[in-house]
Amino acid sequence: MTLLQEIEAALGSAFAKVVGEPVETPVVPSGDLRFGDYQSNAAMALAKQRRTNPRALAQEVIDTVDLGDLATAEIAGPGFINFRVSPSCFARKAAEQIADPRLGVPTTGEGRKIVIDFSAPNVAKPMHVGHIRSTILGDSLARIAGFLGYDVIRDNHIGDWGTQFGMILHGWKTILDQDQLESDPVAELLRVYREVNALAKQDPAVLETCKGELVKLQGGDPENLQIWERCVELSKKGLQKIYDRLDVSFDHWLGESFYNERLPGLVDEFLDKGLARESDGAVCVFSSGELSDDKDPFRIHKENGWTDNPAIIRKADGGFLYATTDLATVEYRIDEWKADEIWYVVGAPQQLHFRQIFDASHRWGKDADFHHIAFGSILGEDRKLMKTRSGDNVQLVDVLDEAIERAAQAIREKNPELDGEEGREVAEIVGIGAVKFAELSQHRLTDYVFSWDRMLALQGDTAPYLQYSYVRIRSIFRKLDGAFDPAGVDLLLEADEEVHLARLAIRYGELLPTILEDHRPNLLANYLLELARAFHSFFEACPVLKAEEISVRDSRLALCELTSRVLSHGLGLLGIRCPERM
Ligand code: ARG
């Protein structure tokens, strides 16, 4: 049990005694340590329901509650109950955490299956920094949910059946450079796509040819199908290289094309069940009429008031759409995988699309806990959407290369002894960690400014700062003669800095489950920064290796060990590794 749960349980039984029946008595960490470590407003909520005096009720509960050595309770303000945890209790919980391979983190997700749809770039188009947010956020959420015991399926729903293939097929047949395709397929496919795209803009005849190629592909033309297959395969290989560098993996790559065969039947079923109807030759899903206009994704406000905003699932020409594929995908994930929850880590502009999909799936009887985990944009230092100098979208590979190059330079300046193979590896860990942390430490919905200097700063809210804190702690242990085993060490928490470090360390298990309430890894990122800062204050105030007494030294070493474990484990859940030296 976490400390919070222990306090909650004690409070719960006190309330039950006082009011004569079991009641909800939530406890939260207090925002301000002056008011104690934890806080509950249960007395206020309950007094309101029962029309009694909240302070009197709180006082009665405080007189009844048996907190043992956990904490002391006192009343505050209109009826808050504040808990101040004793150092001996922190010491006990920290020792338990050291002995626990799960570092005190409960398994809150057992028996629930979540499909996480993230990354999902489009084939033969570059994976740009917009996709980086989905990839990094999705990977971290998958790691956190997995550690909490959820059964997680990571699915890369790549865009491998879009209209871009008209351009690519035409380009493949006219301007493809075979040698380039061999040496750098992703770059060559991109060049082909871009050139044809430019040509088609100038010359309507080229555009028509491209459309013709696309129709042939959709009609099952063997030559075009074969080229398409090659393109997809080459693109996947290229993508895999990036995922390897990012240390991101998937259980499945069921892209859009996987669902092609299911689409005609799906549209028929929607028509049969009255979930969709024809409108101007197209098949559309309309409002259920059950929601008020402002909550209904199938209604939209225009100058003349509210009007229909249907989702087209089959065009008048017989073609299927993004929405059709997404409905088929929902069905597959629920029927085949038995998903309890489906999370879509996709940018905010697709919000309406997902609201429509969720609503239509629900009416269809394909129900799961759906979440669109939206995010904002990445801005350049000029606060405009991040672009290269030539105005193109910035490519993810280039970002990674530059991050590693800059990290290598910083490391060379700081620690010239780190060279060769180890130096390169550390630069990779630090550079990629910096990019990931810059993403994950922001609230996902804010647009954030991409700043190399800020994300690589050793003294700042950065991955390198956390990695350096970890390295610093490990170096303490290297100075020690012989191994140190923290198991069974008595923790003596005397200085405020020691108490505070333990207070934060044990909070790890309370924090992790709350991250999934709103899918916000930035809560973990910020917690780790706070923990590292607490470590540095502790390290300044409390000598470790030079401690006067061996019992004090061992207690402090155990705190160091615990801190480094939580730091590296927490960073691991953000998908960030720790070097041993830097
Ligand atoms: N390929 C899409 C894009 O780049 C994202 C797909 C997201 N997933 C989904 N099931 N719609 O915009």
UniProtKB/TrEMBL annotation:
InterPro entries: aa-tRNA-synth_I_CS (IPR001412), Arg-tRNA-ligase (IPR001278), Arg-tRNA-synth_N (IPR005148), Arg-tRNA-synth_N_sf (IPR036695), ArgRS_core (IPR035684), DALR_anticod-bd (IPR008909), Rossmann-like_a/b/a_fold (IPR014729), tRNAsynth_Ia_anticodon-bd (IPR009080). One of its GO terms (molecular function) is ligase activity. It comes from Haloferula helveola. Its EC number is 6.1.1.19. It is found in: Cytoplasm. PROSITE patterns: AA_TRNA_LIGASE_I. Gene3D superfamilies: Arginyl tRNA synthetase N-terminal domain, HUPs, Isoleucyl-tRNA Synthetase, Domain 1. It catalyses: tRNA(Arg) + L-arginine + ATP = L-arginyl-tRNA(Arg) + AMP + diphosphate. Keywords: Aminoacyl-tRNA synthetase, ATP-binding, Cytoplasm, Ligase, Nucleotide-binding, Protein biosynthesis. It is an enzyme of class 6 (ligase). Belongs to the class-I aminoacyl-tRNA synthetase family. This is Arginine--tRNA ligase. It comes from the Bacteria. Residues 1-85 form the Arginyl tRNA synthetase N-terminal domain. Its main location: cytoplasm. Transmembrane segments: none annotated. Monomer. The lineage of its organism: Bacteria, Pseudomonadati, Verrucomicrobiota, Verrucomicrobiia, Verrucomicrobiales. Pfam families: Arg_tRNA_synt_N (PF03485), DALR_1 (PF05746), tRNA-synt_1d (PF00750). Signal peptide: none annotated. Residues 466-582 form the DALR anticodon binding domain. A motif ('HIGH' region) lies at residues 121-131.
